[in-house]
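Give me structure tokens for this 230-residue protein.
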Amino acid sequence: MLFRQLFDYETYTYTYLIADPQTQEAMLVDSVLEQVDRDLQLIKELGLTLRYAVETHVHADHVTGAGRLRELTGCQGVVPKGADVACADRFLGDGDVLVMGSIRLETIATPGHTDSHVAYLVNGTHLLTGDALFIRGCGRTDFQSGDAGALYDVVTQRLFTLPDETLVYPGHDYRGHTVSTIGEEKRYNPRFQGRTREQFIEFMANLNLPDPKKMAEAVPANMQCGKVAA
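Here you go.
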């Protein structure tokens, strides 16, 4: 499996390029509109063909590059089932699997950051957690139908029950971390380690974070596959 982690410095977003080296087919997970040229240049240099632009959720902090990628390459846009994105080509719900050559992308429903958020387990080893689980943190739960109790349940009962050696690749990082493991997060993630469900809910309710800078632009654009209003 070819696996690359790409970063957007303005929004601290990770985009993941995953490809089958034999078939040369590729997918991008959680692309960023402003980085489409970078991503397509890399895909061209590696001799790949982009098949899918996949989302973990409807982002509030950046506009997806999925629509632009679809225009330029003919790839399919893939979003979680239940997300309000009617323009998408495919919808993946809990347990659904997207197969691309030797790549097996398994969908794990992880509501909490948003109500339709999903994580993706790639070939049983690489877990793309989106905003459900960060390295030593997690996504906020105070808008887009967020639910702190639901997030605690899916992280502790679903993600933390995967093998300890499962690699954790988050949707964002703000402190320079790139990868972790399930075992590491179970031991050291301060949002979950040693906290009860009630304590987690209380903690998340008192974060008092400002809205993302691009929220007013990003959410409506991402519901239109990244189409920004003129």
